[in-house]
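Supplementary Methods. Inverse-folding protocol.

Structures were first reduced to a discrete structure-token string of length 150. This string, shown here, constituted the complete conditioning input.
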């Protein structure tokens, strides 16, 4: 158990002592995105992980779904998110709840970076990339189908 509270100083969306990491390494269904693990396994008392993701203009996160929920707070720029059968525009200070099994994907489609904090349970399942059968079953919006990147 840690007895030390701490502050991680930020400068231009980079955190002191926190390494900028690749978004993911096991898949390639994303574009121009990186992450910072801000409050993660190094603080065992927290039951959540707090991460910052930044998507560069024209980029997007992986299209995925999983059993665990998570919350997202936009803190930089604007863009959009696919949440199952809809595309929702996003801007600074918007808060997103991604329910379990929701198909989701974040896009920096407004010619500026899209940066967001994402909080998830410490113990969670791995994301799953929905196959064509799942997409056909869950998504019937042409707007969403055109927006999806794989």
């Amino acid at each position: 158990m840690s007895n030390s509270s701490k502050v991680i100083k930020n400068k231009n969306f980079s955190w002191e002592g926190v390494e900028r990491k690749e978004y993911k390494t096991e898949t390639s269904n994303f574009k121009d995105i990186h992450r910072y693990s801000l409050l993660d396994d190094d603080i065992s008392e927290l039951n959540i992980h707090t991460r910052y993701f930044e998507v560069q203009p024209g980029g997007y996160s992986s299209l995925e779904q999983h059993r665990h929920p998570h919350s997202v707070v936009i803190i930089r720029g604007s863009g959009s998110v696919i949440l199952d059968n809809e595309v929702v525009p996003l801007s600074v200070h918007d808060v997103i709840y991604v329910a379990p099994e929701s198909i989701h994907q974040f896009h920096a489609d407004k010619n500026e970076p899209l940066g967001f904090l994402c909080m998830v349970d410490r113990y969670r399942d791995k994301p799953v990339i929905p196959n064509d059968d799942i997409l056909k079953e869950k998504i019937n919006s042409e707007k969403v189908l055109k927006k999806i990147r794989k």
